[in-house]
Write a sequence for this structure.
């Protein structure tokens, strides 16, 4: 998807994907990841999600990647924190205690820059990408995180009624994208509160664990 689409959304404040509170699946299912305090959790395409403040409050270290500098300005303002800022190639690195954010195209992020992560939480990231970008994205996440365990939130809805993003990602597509690298378990599904764009929708939570070597 053209980066201008997202820059425009942030510049004009059309960010209805932003939840004003930590994601309910994250809060209810984080224990499934069985992470110790201080574990590093990666949030791809993080926007200014409140999940970051919540994870920090739970004693985790958060690493995010986000295209929009405006989103990250707002994130740090919401956190009431002034980050240190350095340039790393095409990416800007904004850091504060417990928090590293890479501002720029996630496809420019390397495993070396990201460093070791213990888990990934994908909410409104995979589903934000059109079909022709998803393979590349999923492979990039696997490479970046070295198949770290993942919680992945997807949507199901009638695509004849709703135009994404967020895009519907049926179970067989989750398996096609991640089935080689991970063993997949659907942990939960629930109707989206108030529907999506006026139509019924369902959200699903997937738990991805590195598949045993063949
Ligand atoms: C639907 S929003 C979700 C934000 C956040 N995960 C949340 O739950 O509120 C998708 C975000 O991905 C960002 N984005 C889109 N393409 C990107 C890319 N190639 N690299 C980094 N971020 C990207 C957009 O700027 C936008 O903030």
């Amino acid at each position: 998807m053209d980066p201008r689409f997202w820059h425009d959304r942030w510049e004009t404040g059309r960010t209805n994907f932003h939840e004003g509170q930590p994601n309910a699946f994250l809060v209810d299912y984080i224990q499934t990841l069985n992470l110790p305090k201080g574990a590093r959790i990666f949030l791809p395409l993080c926007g200014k999600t409140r999940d970051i403040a919540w994870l920090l409050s739970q004693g985790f270290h958060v690493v995010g990647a986000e295209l929009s500098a405006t989103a990250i300005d707002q994130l740090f303002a919401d956190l009431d924190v002034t980050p240190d800022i350095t340039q790393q190639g095409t990416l800007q690195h904004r850091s504060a205690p417990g928090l590293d954010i890479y501002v720029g195209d996630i496809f420019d992020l390397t495993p070396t820059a990201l460093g070791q992560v213990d888990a990934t939480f994908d909410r409104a990231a995979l589903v934000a990408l059109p079909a022709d970008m998803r393979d590349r994205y999923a492979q990039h996440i696997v490479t970046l995180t070295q198949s770290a365990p993942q919680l992945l939130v997807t949507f199901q809805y009638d695509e004849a009624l709703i135009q994404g993003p967020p895009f519907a990602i049926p179970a067989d597509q989750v398996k096609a994208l991640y089935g080689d690298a991970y063993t997949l378990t659907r942990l939960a599904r629930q109707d989206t509160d108030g529907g999506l764009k006026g139509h019924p929708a369902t959200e699903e939570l997937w738990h991805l664990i590195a598949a045993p070597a063949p």
Observations:
- The beta strands are 40-44, 61-66, 84-88, 91-96, 99-103, 119-122, 150-156, 182-191, 202-210.
- The domain at 3-13+21-210 is CATH 3.40.50.150 (Rossmann fold).
